[in-house]
Design a protein that fits this description.
mainly alpha; globular; 298 residues
């Protein structure tokens, strides 16, 4: 009887270990698979040429990612710039000023917003943001725009990454000890001075990590961006120019024109570049959050 229980315990432990290893092995397998499928284009030209060339003419065998990389950076930077300050202020309010009832109501709504499919955000962008930019924003600057711009994609992405940033910031603010707040208030600091000089100072690494998590989410977003960015293979030079981020390039073209030599390999190299960038940002933000948790545990 005892031997049977020990056998079941060992079997369950090994099964759970195997399941825990699967996600990591899957990431490694994806990187390896994309690398192997990208080799043909890297054998034909250097990685530097692919990344820095502006020429995207697949029929001529020219696969320059520069317009798409710049499109990705423009859209991502706009989204982060629009989302991070309001999200931090919202998290501060919910954590430090709001009553318990409001806080308990707000958290599920924030989580619900994070679960809305990206295509819904894209539709809202097409119906609201694009016309707003075309009819209101562009005329303010004396220019014409179809509305399908880097700015439209950035606004839609900002709405999508906001729940992630607010949620993580709330958790980080919660880890700041109550004694730190009480000590500042006891020596005469106002509520805002306590938040600014005590809470924010202690939580700053976590706030940065939350912003990086939002950044990594913005890097990989596809459907909503594809619907509002304009998808023109040219590096944007202003907010009102169309953009063509890497995820939109892959989603728009993979499965089509695969008879063109190296086209398949070029798109898979774009996917590999995107995956590596997102992994780097995620690992960096997770490392910061782990350091915060360890610091609290001591």
């Amino acid at each position: 009887m005892q031997a049977s229980r020990l056998w079941m315990d060992r079997t369950a432990r090994r099964a759970m270990l195997a399941l825990a290893v699967v996600p990591s092995a899957l990431v490694v397998a994806m990187v390896l698979g994309l690398w192997l499928r990208s080799r043909p284009i890297l054998d034909a030209t250097s990685l530097g040429d692919v990344l820095l060339s502006s020429s995207w003419r697949p029929l001529s065998g020219e696969f320059g990612f520069y317009p798409f990389i710049m499109g990705t950076l423009w859209v991502t930077c706009i989204a982060v710039a629009l989302a991070v300050p309001p999200c931090i202020l919202a998290a501060i309010y919910l954590s430090e000023y709001a009553g318990r009832a409001l806080r308990e109501w707000a958290k599920p709504l924030i989580d619900l917003l994070a679960g809305i499919p990206s295509v819904v955000f894209g539709m809202c962008g097409v119906l609201v943001v694009v016309p707003l930019i075309k009819n209101r924003v562009a005329p303010l600057f004396g220019t014409f725009s179809t509305g399908y711009t880097a700015l439209a994609a950035g606004i839609v992405l900002a709405a999508m990454i906001a729940p992630v940033i607010v949620h993580v910031c709330l958790e980080v603010f919660r880890t700041v000890p109550r004694e730190a707040r009480d000590g500042a208030l006891a020596v005469g600091a106002t509520k805002w001075q306590t938040v600014k000089h005590v809470v924010m100072r202690k939580a700053m690494p976590g706030v940065i990590a939350a912003s990086v998590l939002g950044l990594s989410r913005a890097f990989g977003e596809t459907m909503a961006v594809l619907m509002v960015a304009g998808n023109v293979a040219r590096a944007p030079s202003s907010l009102l120019d169309p953009a063509y981020p890497l995820p939109a390039l892959i989603a728009n073209n993979y499965g089509e024109m695969m008879s063109i030599p190296l086209y398949d390999s070029a798109l898979l190299l774009a996917a590999l570049v995107l995956l590596v960038v997102v992994l780097v940002f995620n690992v960096a933000s997770r490392a910061v959050l782990v350091r915060i948790e360890r610091g609290i545990a001591r």
